[in-house]
Amino acid sequence: MGADRWDMTHQFGKNVRFEFILSDRLPIMAWLACVRRQSERINVWHGSHVSRGDGVFWEGINPTPREPAAVIRHHFPLSSGGVIDGNQLVFFTPGHVLERLFCIRDSESLWVSNSLPLVLAASGSELSKRYVAYPAEFELITSHDRCFPLQGTKELRVFYNCNIRVHDDLQYEVEPRVTNYNFSTYQNYVGSLQKFIEEMLTANGKGENRSYLPLSTLSRGYDSTAITVLARKFGVSEALSIKEARIYGPNSENVTDTADFLGIKLQSINRLDYAKYGFEAEKLFFVTALADEICFYPFVNSLRGRLLFVGVHGDSIWDRNAHPVGTWRRDNAGASMQEFRIRTGFVLFPLAFFGWQHHADIIRLSRSDEMRPWAVGGTYDRPIPRRIAEEAKLARTSFGTKKMAVTVTAGARGEGANLSLELQRKLEEHWVDNYSRAMRVTLGVMNRALYSAQDLFYSLQNSAADIPQQAENHSGSSQFVRNALTSIKYSHFRRKYVRPILPVTFAAQVTNNMLIHEYAGLLD
To answer: Which of 13, 64, 281, 512 has the fewest CB atoms within 10 Å, i.e. the most exposed one?
Structure first.
């Protein structure tokens, strides 16, 4: 709801102000705001890498450094924070859905933070001990403002890709971000991407923005390859890579030749190297239930003070066979790094997500006659990133030849052994404390049935993926089968209610409770 609908009777007074409290006990990019009912003083606790201005604060890169408060009118900030906009209080998320703001409200206070364990600790709350759907809740986004249960009567509000205007009576309005781009041609679209990169790199280090040294990611897939090609045009000369894909084994994601061709200095690790760090890594990545990007933890020292270009969401945005999803996410890709990021001190730049409001136009462009020379057919077909990479003289067979993934479904069947003994022990304690032996046995029987159903589903899905298709023709019974299986795969009902219930299901509860204790006495 826009500012023109703002209830004038519930604006803050003219003396509304932030009162900043710097704390070395907070993660360096974390912040926590407390809004008291009918109070004009907004307390903001923050870490050392949070920038402050007159009536504004933020972490990350503010795209409007000459007028920092104007960030709330920008469509894609690489930052989160708060602004006093006249007599109005506005909190803002980044311009993508890899991160969110967390909010808990009681009768007298509203707490807002970019850290889940921090807002839980400040408000005296905890995640619901027996709620089994946190993995599904954090995995799928269906709106800008979502509500999750907490222990007791409170609720957790989670905000994505929006501004939140707060009343002095602790009610709020959500403002989605809008843009007006023309993506009718490839040159218009890629030109807009390049202009946006230039805009962010120009803002980087200007005004009260801290300076973050750009760094890219690189794989054999479409998305990070195209992102690195675009970033290289602006002087980015380093990249991180993970050397093997989830199911294809050692060296399957070796991109040394691509890096050498592009003149990129490459730092590579093995996909499961994170396991040697044990609970030190797990407690950060599991706070939002799923730990897909935990494989990036070994890069912790290389990521400090960096602006990280990632290709996340390229599968949704650039796929020629896609259906418009815009701002909403169908999977957890990229979204488990938030607590790790604000503690390590780097900024995410998911460039593929740029222009998500015009996703239907991007799909039309991908299917246009103009892009036909870069359409290869099949279920893994992304003409836009292919053209970006091939026009940089990369060979067609050097990337985007088959769908691979390096992220870690940590705790899932086949990868559960990679959990540390410490986390396994804590999960088992939570499991025993909250479920009777009879219930645990019953769930075990149900899980075996669900695993059998999953095996059948993935067998059908792999068979459907092998059905030949032409790039120009996506109709007929084979496409119907693929669409049906995709609908089942991404069904919110299936993810929330038809999934095994295991000790690792409660990883968010366990890890958040561990981190909450770090903040004991912080606000006293």
So the answer is: 13
Same-domain check for residues 137 and 205: no
| Ranges of H-type helices in 299-374 | 300-303, 314-317, 338-344, 359-366
Both tokens of 277, joined, read 């760090």
Taking the CA atoms of residue 61, residue 259, residue 363 and residue 475 in that order, the dihedral angle to the nearest 10 degrees is: -150
| Rg (alpha carbons) of the chain, rounded to whole number | 23
The identity of residue 405, as a single letter, is A
Together in a domain, 372 and 444 = no
User: How many residues are there in the chain?
Assistant: 524
The residues that bridge with 249 in the sheet, in sequence order, are 245
Quickly count: other Cβ atoms within 10 Å of residue 148's Cβ: 17
CB atoms within 10 A of CB 346: 25
- For the residues 73-79, what does the mean pLDDT come to? 97
The pair of structure tokens assigned to 257 is 């030749």
pLDDT of the residue at 9: 59
Question: Is residue 490 scored above 60 in pLDDT?
Answer: no
244 and 146 share one domain: no
Hey, what's the torsion of the CAs at 263, 268, 271, 276, to 10 degrees?
-160
Query: Quick check: 469 and 478 in contact, CB under 8 A?
Result: yes
Which helix (H) or strand (E) is 431 found in, with range? helix 421-434
Which residue type occupies 442?
T
Residue 42 pLDDT > 90, yes or no?
Answer: yes
Count of CB atoms situated within 10 Å of the CB of 40: 15
CATH of the domain at 153: 3.60.20
pTM over 0.85: yes
512 located within any domain: no
